[in-house]
Amino acid sequence: MCGIAGFYNFNLSTEDKVHTLRQMLTRIKHRGPDESGIYISKATSLGSVRLNIVDLTTGTMPLSNADGSLWIVFNGEIFNHIELKEELLAKNHSFKTHSDTEVIVHLYEEYGPEFLNKLNGQFAIAIWDKYKQELFLARDRVGIRPLFYTTVGDAFVFASEIKSFLEFPEFNPKISAKALSEYFTFWTTLSANTAFEGVFELPPGSYMTINANSKTIKTYWELPISKPKDYKYNTLKEASEEFEFIFTDAVKLRLRADVQVAAYLSGGLDSSITTSFIKKITPDSLRTFSIGFTEKDFDESSFQNIARDYFKTDHSSIICSSKDISENFKDVVWHSEAPLLRTAPTPMSMLAKSVRDHNIKVVITGEGADELFGGYNIFKETKIKHFWAKDPQSKYRPLLLKKLYPYIPQISKANNTVLKLFFGFKLNETASPIYSHLLRWHNTSRINNYLSKDYKEAVHNYNPIAKIEKQLDAKFKDLDYLTKAQWIELHFFMSKYLLSSQGDRMAMANSVEGRYPFLDHRVIEFCMQLNPDLKLNGLNEKYLLKKLMKDRLPESILNRSKQAYRAPIQSAFFSEEMPPYLDAMLSEEKITEFGVFNAAYISKLKKKMILNKQVSEIDNMAITAVLSTQILYDLFINKSIPKLQESDLVILNKTILDESVI
Length: 662
What we know:
Elements: E1 2-8, H1 14-27, E2 35-40, E3 44-50, E4 63-64, E5 70-78, H2 81-89, H3 100-111, E6 121-129, E7 134-139, E8 148-152, E9 155-159, H4 177-186, E10 199-201, E11 206-210, E12 215-219, H5 236-254, E13 261-264, H6 269-281, E14 287-293, H7 301-311, E15 314-320, H8 322-336, H9 345-357, E16 362-364, H10 369-372, H11 377-389, H12 409-412, H13 416-423, H14 435-444, H15 453-458, H16 464-472, H17 481-508, E17 513-515, H18 521-527, E18 536-537, E19 540-541, H19 543-548, H20 555-558, H21 570-573, H22 580-585, H23 588-594, H24 599-611, H25 617-637, E20 654-657
Parallel strand pairs: 2-20, 13-14, 13-16, 14-15, 16-17
Antiparallel strand pairs: 1-3, 1-9, 2-3, 4-5, 5-6, 6-7, 7-11, 8-9, 8-10, 11-12, 18-19
Helix pairs in contact: 2-3, 5-6, 8-9, 8-25, 9-17, 11-17, 23-24, 24-25
């Protein structure tokens, strides 16, 4: 795992290019603390910081093909690189290293951009073609690894994280009002946009080519969709057999490394399944990690202990308090580089730190199972509301919704009237392609009310929910409601929020690589061809997985009630132990100075949180959104970060100067 950065058409001296690139790499050295290297030519510059996992001795980047016409830096892992290398050897390619990086550059030489379809992995790639004078960038199918780009003057600049751009001359970011409107509705942006104007991310499953004449982006993989007539797997038996085969191989590939591989064991079904498959493939001792909470409403330690004892793993667990969240939240925003509506990324960062503190660099996790097998309550909620919409006046059908949220008192203890008021929003609009998410997005969008007058005016005529509805109307024709809801979660939410703020960013902030067997593209393609009843059977989520794992997991884990992963908010941000910086960011002075939010509205929200008077989930999300945005503004717009000193800069283990600059 690594971090990459570079630029094209930056017309300064070689010395200035080297210095700029070193500074950019230093800002992301947490992604690769083991070594770093750069390649400098007249037209382009590439750099990498590396976390050594595969080929610990000879895989230092940048690397080239045999004749030095192609140069690569790379962030990620190609899990099937051994098989791909054998294919290339048969075509007379020769290799100087045992790294997956070198395999990529030879694949590009042999097949061009089509090579991306051969990869099983998680990656962000940059290749410079000296002969074509062309830069090639690519990103994995589901966006596990990040890749951002921007233009500064005539220069094209790219990096694994936006914070690298802060070290590029004359880069002056600005918060995007449109992006905030989307974050405060969907928890993320809709497209390639980021929180900053003019800064974009290369979409998952895409590649880009940049040369003197053009900049083009093409898609090489899209999330598959199956209509009812096209479901490939309709019986439990055939689906179970196929999943067992694919998932076993997905796990086996992700165990490949020249360092120890550990696993998260949360006490839930997903991590227990991955642990079970790991133990089946390699019965040796397995290191596992988990995190619990001092607040019992969030804690799952009892289930983690059951799983630990069942699998007999070498287990380490840490406890997260509200104070831990408040003390670490600023760093979490720095690494997320986006507004947050939940504090959940903070414990994930603490968990990754625990892994790293045990000298482990790689961890396997269960992300993706909820999206692919109907695990989230939003899928059940959609099913209940379709059922309720057939008899809108029913007194009993809305009561089913109380079963989904036992951990939210305002819902679990609500009467019929309250349930109708809360969940009855646009109840009869079942034909809408985004029906599953209408209520949630409508409620979250109320956070936009806290924006300042200027920011509200900037998005006065912008309706992001209507924009999505129009875009998906034709695409979702004839699809079942679960497939629609799953596609929305996978397409809009997974890469840009879940894998970003809770996945790659929190792990790599601590120099840990996460691996996700449920997000092997073969597993995704399999799941999107399943009959929906094999995913959500009645209100029984992950039906196929539960049937498959019967007698292979403890009953208490296999059939436990679904508990959403959450972390404290109100107690973290409003206590006597609240760090001074949090109070400062929410002060009237700072709110007014930054100009993003309405100071009077924020003052009222703060008082409500402090007095603890009927604080809702929306209130908790709103205060988190405000606080994280204020921190983001302070860090990236005000640039209230220490300037890099010469002693801070990464040591370059490899420096390649092309003949064009010598």
